[in-house]
Write a structure and sequence with these properties.
By secondary structure, this protein is α+β, with helices and mostly antiparallel strands. The chain is built from seven helices and 14 strands.
């Protein structure tokens, strides 16, 4: 059994160190130095360098772990343990000088998230969690909200940027939630959206078209904060990010049912 608390504390240090580089580069970033990986899918040298820094330091922290990374800077295969890394979640925000954007580092054990760190590199908040150890924001315990009605909820989401196959259904869901809740927010970083569910700023979050590195760290943070995370069908294991829901436990069933009315027709 690994000492997950010690690992998370070390990972938090690594995230903060890497975040210093991101903050420095943000001061004079030139958007012309941005590349396009796919339709509306941006990447910068900051993403790549940050990931290289993370891979190198995490490799020393847990040498037996492999990597799943957004920018492909490591080819080490995953076994029992696996680091799942997004070096700059919210790249589009970053290149436009708009917060938030974050470093997201999740650790899987036998494909289950067991530790996670989400550092809002545009600010000063760091969210951490480990299995059976609770969830924390800057060292203070956090918990999902205790709101019991969707009508009293603030909902987070993200707009699809290259997968428009379910766009019509998604827009219908937005119309519904706009009319029946306290509102919808779109911040531009799924890791931050989910971390905000964990600390009670949002009641729920849903999105489709994401990837494992977008959600791995935040999944354990939400769960350790007393919330639930699943795909649109209610499956809570082996989440890929292709569709994802995070919610406080009290609203989860109602929210899942409502999302499914639109997104799983």
């Amino acid at each position: 059994m690994k000492d997950l608390k010690t690992i998370v504390n070390k990972v938090a240090e690594i995230a903060l160190e890497t975040g210093k580089f991101i903050k420095q580069e943000a001061k004079g970033f030139d958007i012309s130095r941005t590349e396009t990986k796919g339709l509306h899918d941006l990447v910068s040298y900051v993403d790549k360098k940050s990931e290289e820094m993370l891979v190198q330091k995490l490799g020393l922290t847990l040498p037996e772990a492999g990597f799943i990374t957004e920018e492909g800077t490591s080819s080490k295969k995953c076994g029992k343990y696996c680091w799942v890394i997004d070096p700059l979640d919210g790249t589009t925000n970053f290149v436009h000088g708009l917060p938030p954007y974050a470093i997201s580092i999740g650790l899987l054990e036998d494909d289950e998230p067991v530790a996670g760190v989400v550092y809002e590199a545009s600010g000063s908040e760091i969210f951490t969690a480990w299995k059976n150890g609770g969830a924390w924001l800057n060292g203070k315990a956090i918990h999902v909200s205790d709101t019991t009605k969707l009508s009293d909820s603030l909902i987070a989401t993200g707009f699809p940027y290259n997968d428009f196959g379910r766009l019509d259904e998604f827009l219908e869901s937005l119309k519904h939630f706009s009319k029946t809740t306290h509102g919808i927010r779109r911040l531009g970083s799924a890791a931050i959206d989910m971390a905000y569910v964990a600390c009670g700023r949002f009641e729920t979050f849903y999105e489709y078209g994401l990837n494992p590195w977008d959600i791995a760290a935040a999944t354990i943070i939400v769960r350790e904060a007393g919330g639930k995370v699943s795909d649109f069908r209610g499956n809570e294991k082996n989440l890929s990010g292709s569709d994802i829901i995070a919610s406080n436990n009290l609203l989860y069933s109602e929210f899942l049912e409502t999302v499914n009315k639109f997104m799983n027709r």
